[in-house]
């Protein structure tokens, strides 16, 4: 098969690669679309920590073309979304149903070959039927489930005022779920006018460009100096990670979804906000719960099927698999601003 193979840091090439071979409980998925996750560029361009050569890509949709003799839950020809996370099923966290916190998991697109390829081997337990959902949209089910994992975990209520710090794909998906939960007052913060425009179109009531205005001052003004009920950190920035502590009201909640890429040093004021305001801080990792892969995935598919969520406007770039290097060169050189990038074999 052809695949986008990573041979070293910032060295991804379109080459021939051995076809995957399935076991008795596996399926082979012909990849129709694979999204570029926000975690992919830092790992591919700067710091890959798994074995090489590797095939990245974990936001996968496609068609079942082969299956092992013990596979009963899916048929050849079925259109599926791939669940990239493979928990061990044996550790204490798995036995409690906390699959996202598995102590010994595997991951497609990391330590296992992923979706930047024509075919990928997947355990049969890790594919979900998508019916007639478009393949490009289905490739976004994984990040949609990640966003829902955070929203369900922080438990917004009617009447809450919520700030989303970072209005990229993750922040936009959080915004969509907040609207479905009945949250009406949503403040979107970013440094990109394009991403803020997208957030506005998706239902944000107020947008703040942090390059032009101090978001902490603006949010406190908007909330009569009280702060928001909930702050979502979706940028993975040391700046927004600290700002969340300053914009949240007393007894408020903060949901940390963005990945930390460097050490975080808090100001005295920010740290004191944690205990002086008795804040609740919660982190959310991945998107999995019991029964595996969890309601985050089943609800995401259901809401896409009934058209309650529309993700099409978020896709800004499509690259054929043969142009995988050009896609990551564009990201590395910051030649164009992008939202969701889809790789199409």
UniProtKB/TrEMBL annotation:
Known cofactor(s): Zn(2+)
Residues of the Alcohol dehydrogenase-like C-terminal domain: 170-290
Tagged with keyword Metal-binding: yes
InterPro entries reported in the protein's UniProt record: ADH-like_C (IPR013149), ADH-like_N (IPR013154), ADH_Zn_CS (IPR002328), GroES-like_sf (IPR011032), NAD(P)-bd_dom_sf (IPR036291), Zn_alcohol_dh (IPR050129)
GO terms, molecular function: oxidoreductase activity; zinc ion binding
Residue ranges annotated for the Alcohol dehydrogenase-like N-terminal domain, each copy included: 23-130
Keywords assigned: Metal-binding, Oxidoreductase, Zinc
Entry similarity comment: Belongs to the zinc-containing alcohol dehydrogenase family.
Official protein name in the record: Alcohol dehydrogenase GroES domain protein
